[in-house]
User: Fold these one by one.
Assistant:
Number 1:
Amino acid sequence: MGDVVSYSREGEIAYITVNNPPVNALSLPVRQGLQQSFQKFAADAEAKAAILICDGRTFIAGADITEFGKPPEDPWLPKVIAEMEACEKITIAAIHGTALGGGLETAMGCHYRCAVPAAKVGLPEVTLGLLPGATGTQRLPRLIGPKAALDAMISGKPLPAGKAHQAGAVDEIVEGDLKAGATAYAKRLLSEGAKPRRISEMDVDKSEIDQHFFAEYRNGMARATRGFFAPEQILKCVEASVTVPYADAVKRENELFMECMMSTHSAAQRHLFFAERACTKVPDVPSNTPMRDIKKVAVLGGGTMGGGIAMNFANAGLQVVLKEINTEALERGLGIIRKNYENTVAKGRMTPEQLDECMALITGAIEYDGISDCDLIVEAVFENMALKKEIFAELDKVAKKGAILASNTSTLDIDEIAAVTSRPQDVIGWHFFAPANVMTLLELVRGKETAKDVIATSMAMAKTIRKTAVLVGVCFGFVGNRMFFPYISEAQQMILEGVPAERIDQVAFDWGMAMGPNGVSDLSGLDVLDKVNSEWKDRPEDPALWIVVRKLVEIGRFGQKTGKGIYNYAGRSPVPDPEVTAIAKAEAERLGVAQLENVSDEEIIERLMFSMINEGALILEEGIASRPSDIDVVFVHGYGMPRYRGGPMHYGDAVGLDKVVAAMEKYRKRYGDTYWKPAPLLAELAKSGKTFDQWAASNG
Ligand code: 3HC
Ligand code: NAI
């Protein structure tokens, strides 16, 4: 038997202990170990009950995700679980940490489950584009009812032990030491004459199911699960649980699981699982890098971004000083923050007491001396280099020694800003995304001299305020906006070529984007885009570039904020406007831009996505991003790209980089080299039949 699972006995109680750090995932040796240990228990005449318990920080946190996509190796998890359940003597799972996915399925192969109060149990497979494929879709409905089971599996959200106990997924809550509590529970069950209680032999409670149940559930989940493959598969499994016998439903579960496993969606979602963990690791900043102590934070500027940024820190229980230029601006900023919190209270996501606690953490200042004791200062004033330099020069004078000086600039050169201080090692970009209290992405921008402990502390702080941080280098627009510009450019160019804006947006939406590029432009503000256009470093020499934006801004159509932009707005709903079409047509005539007819959906997606992928390849060559997967994290967390596409670079890999380059060559013939010449890295990978992922692996 491997070391990862051990068998021991104290009196009549056997202990089957899993020890497979870091999260006790069900890799092949664990499955083998479980199988052998339960066989040993069955054969051990002295043992009357077995407790399945785990060493380390958690109970089994699921199947080993690194094994997915490879040929399955025997013993398969459903087989191990079925054998465990068949045992003639009682078995008890003792849960701490998280029993997730295959972990909960294994626990449901036991006859009873106990857990410490802080434990969580759940079936989060949907987040990996999968379904609980080791009989979870059949067992959970039998334990807690089909509706509650569907809610858990479709959301993927784990239940705290207390709720799981109420629902029936956990039988006993154990206070204090888990092993001692589980042993006492096992002894009690034995003394009560408890028998093996096999979930597979239970009936599903159909009292809540009528003929409309599944159709209504399907409709209810449609919006939240739009485009995803796995949720419907899960629904089909639960349908099977109430319509066919257990053994047949398990067969159906297996077929549907394999379909999920082979899907491009699951490959993309699994890629993101690892990408989101990889991006927290900076190659030359080891995990034992000392941190700076951050207790008090200042935010400069209480406008659109500053208010949301301040909320992030207050939500994490940190003291924040919000600095504005005068009392009026400060009151306005604080007022907006309060209003935001009040909206959250109104939605029931926060209590009035929590609102008061957060507001009490945020104080105001209009002078710099109000922030001199802060450990971290995030500047979020207007996007203007001269102003930012003035502010950083001032911060250099007033900020305490060792304070981290961060800028929320979306395009400006961090090195140029750092150069006005005597401490460029303390300066870093903290690029939040709007709305800053909602969007999960944080681009951390590393300057030439940014110190490693500033990076390590920023990464840790990002986690504290629940952001997904990606470290990027200095360039115009950093990673996200720099790649977003070609995407917007293509959308603009297509409008100029006579493709209706709403058609472009619909195709992008159907592909999975939260919003099409033209809707996003209107939301961000066409005036903001136009400003970027005029300040764009290395802007291609092209009079047609973003000309529609320029013309719309000239007549005051700034987007949603003025009720008119690329679209007209009745509330937030975009309505196409013939005036915009006419403007685009006139500009196309003036600039001699050929009108396209019968543009296919495929072309729209290729032009939007491949232009971005090419920019991503340039970014990798220049070392602005450390890994292709970091770029993917940026787009999924900051730009509304659906998780089932895995981000732009993974999408390129999934399509095939040779196909990406072939399509680019097609457009290069039509439009020339400026936008469509493949980046050297992309061309090279396409030629050698490799993916970005393989390139990253070979780069270490
Ligand atoms: N398989 C393989 N590796 C895993 C893993 C898994 N199921 N879960 C976590 N890991 C790895 C991570 O990649 C990470 O590795 P790294 O240190 O090299 O980056 C390490 O374990 C620690 O993970 P986290 O950084 O995420 O640690 P946290 O303490 O923040 O979170 C956790 C722990 C809540 C368990 C979180 O890791 C998690 O949610 N894991 C995935 C749970 C899951 O989705 N389980 C279902 C799997 S699918 C399944 O079971 C199919 C079945 O139905 C057949
Ligand atoms: P904003 O115009 O809404 O707010 C800027 C605020 O800064 C104003 O309230 C102003 O009074 C204040 N301010 C100006 N000088 C100041 C000073 N010396 N001290 C303190 N406060 C001062 O601007 P917004 O949109 O919040 O942008 C701020 C920064 O965030 C810019 O660098 C911008 O590029 C960046 N950013 C903006 C995003 C957005 O979507 N709005 C997204 C990501 C970054």
Number 2:
Amino acid sequence: MYITRRERFSSAHRLLNTNIADNDNNKLFGKCYQLHGHNYELFVTVTGPINKISGFVIDLKDLKQIIKNKVINKLDHQYINEVDFMKDTITTTENLCISIWNELKNPIEQLGGKLYKIKIKETENNFFEYYG
Ligand code: NI
């Protein structure tokens, strides 16, 4: 059984590798080197056995709360480059998937589920998926 919770957040970022020069960043990232934003959609998929007492794999209100506290509240209407779990990375959606996975994996295990997939929809046409 796989359960997916969707959340949305709107954030600003710029793609920037702090180890290379300004004009190299400009060449590498083009328009994305400039400050801009996205309306992201995050899909968190959890798997695990059905609890005999509750009939749930995971209580969705607890899952929702964890995603809000660990991820959405930190990202929504914020500058991703300065968010604690993204500070030292290039703020691509690839790296965002991995950082969100790392933020959620243990708290979801504490609720009795197992994190299966992080999917982020960045634009109408671009989706990213990470399975750990
Ligand atoms: Ni972007």
